[in-house]
Amino acid sequence: MTAVNSRHAPPATAGADASRPPSRRRRAGRGRSRVEGSYALFLLPGALAFLLVIVVPFLMNTGISFTEWSGVGTPEFTGLENYRELAGDEDFWESFRHSLAMVVAMALVPTAIGLLLASALFDFATKRAGSRLAAVLRACFYLPQVLPIAVAGIVWSWILAPENGSLNEVLGAVGLDALQQDWLGDPDWALYSVMAVMVWVQIGFPLVIFMSGLQRVDPALHEAAELDGAGWWRRFWHVTLPQLRPETGVVLLWCTIAALKVFGMVYVLTGGGPGGATNVPSYFAYQNFFENFKASYGAAISTVLTILIMVLAVVALRLQTRAEDEAG
Question: N or C end of the chain, less CB within 10 A?
Answer without folding.
Answer: N
